[in-house]
Design brief:
Blueprint: H1 3-24, H2 40-90, E1 92-97, E2 103-110, E3 113-119, E4 122-129, E5 137-143, E6 147-148, H3 152-159, E7 171-183, E8 186-195, E9 198-210, E10 217-223, E11 227-228, H4 238-244, E12 249-260
Antiparallel strand pairs: 1-4, 1-12, 2-3, 2-12, 3-6, 4-5, 5-7, 7-8, 8-9, 9-10, 10-12, 11-12
Helix pairs in contact: 1-2
Length: about 260
C-alpha cells in the first residue's frame, strides 16, 4: 500500500468522523470545513490494502531481527566477553620494589650492644591475585656487596671470603612457594631463602600498611623469625667467634614500598 493511498484512507476517515460530530453538535459547522463522506470504493480499497501492509510490517520486523542476530548481537556478546576478561585481568596486579622508599635491614647483638645494618641495593616483584590470594607470589634479589653497617672496615670484612664471600655468592635471593591469607590486610608467605650458597625455607609475615593509592604505590611491612648464622654457614673463624661476642641470631627488619608495574 503506497503512502498516497494511506493518506487518502486516513483523510476520508477523519472527514467521516467530522460529519458525525457535526450532526451531533449543530454549532460545530462554523469552526471547520466540511467535506464529502468516505466513499464505498475508498473504504474497500483501504480494507484490501491493510492485510498487505501488515504483511510488509511483519517482513520488515523479521529482517530487522535477522540483522540484529547476525550483526549487532555478536558484537554485543564480544563486548561483554572483553569486559569480563578485563575484570579478570584487573584482579591480578604486579608491583616492583622501589628501593628509594624501602628498607631491608638487620640487627645482631654483640656483647652489650646491638649492631645494625642494611642492604642498599636490591630488587623484587610482587604478584597479587586478589580473587585467589594463594596464587600470589613474591621474588627478591639482594646485592650482598651493598651491605652497610656504617663502618667501612667492618663492611669490607663482611664482604670477604671469611664471611659472605661476595665474589662467589654475590646475591641473596628469596622466592615464594605458597601464600596464605591470615587477615584482611595480612598474610604468610612461605618460600626459599638462598644465602651464601645455602637454601632454607622461611616464612615471611607480611602486612599491608598502605593500600594502593592514586599513584599506584603500596607499602608492606615484613617480619620473620630471626635467622641463625650457622644455618647458612656464616661463621667467623673459631677463635674470632669465641672472642667477638656476636650472637648467632640475626633479626630481620624489612619494609617494602612497591609501585605498580607497567
Amino acid at each position: 500500500m503506497n503512502l498516497q493511498a494511506r493518506l487518502c484512507c486516513h483523510s476520508e476517515r477523519s472527514e467521516a468522523a467530522t460529519q458525525q460530530t457535526k450532526s451531533a453538535r449543530p454549532g460545530f459547522q462554523s469552526l471547520i470545513c466540511s467535506g464529502p463522506a468516505l466513499s464505498n470504493r475508498n473504504s474497500q480499497r483501504c480494507l484490501k490494502a491493510w492485510p498487505r501492509a501488515s504483511h510488509s510490517l511483519a517482513a520488515l520486523s523479521l529482517d530487522m531481527t535477522v540483522r540484529f542476530t547476525r550483526g549487532v548481537l555478536p558484537s554485543l556478546l564480544a563486548t561483554v566477553a572483553i569486559t569480563g576478561l578485563s575484570s579478570a585481568v584487573s584482579a591480578k596486579e604486579s608491583y616492583k620494589f622501589d628501593p628509594s622508599g624501602s628498607t631491608i635491614g638487620f640487627s645482631v647483638h654483640q656483647f652489650l650492644g646491638t649492631t645494625r645494618g642494611r642492604f642498599a641495593s636490591f630488587s623484587g616483584r610482587i604478584e597479587v591475585d586478589r580473587e585467589h590470594p594463594e596464587k600470589s607470589s613474591v621474588t627478591a634479589q639482594i646485592d650482598v656487596q651493598s651491605i652497610d653497617t656504617k663502618i667501612k672496615k667492618r663492611d669490607d670484612h663482611l664482604r670477604s671470603a671469611e664471611f659472605f664471600n661476595v665474589e662467589k655468592f654475590p646475591r641473596i635471593t628469596f622466592k615464594s612457594r605458597t601464600v596464605k591469607r591470615t587477615g584482611p590486610q595480612t598474610g604468610d608467605v612461605l618460600g626459599d631463602l638462598t644465602m651464601h650458597g645455602v637454601t632454607k625455607p622461611i616464612t615471611l609475615h607480611v602486612k599491608l600498611v598502605t593500600p594502593t593509592n592514586e599513584t599506584g604505590r603500596t607499602r608492606w611491612s615484613v617480619a620473620t623469625e630471626p635467622i641463625m648464622r650457622r644455618d647458612f654457614n656464616l661463621m667467623f673463624a673459631p677463635a674470632a667467634e669465641s672472642v667477638s661476642g656476636i650472637s648467632q641470631t640475626v633479626a630481620i627488619d624489612i619494609e617494602i614500598e612497591a609501585k605498580r608495574a607497567d
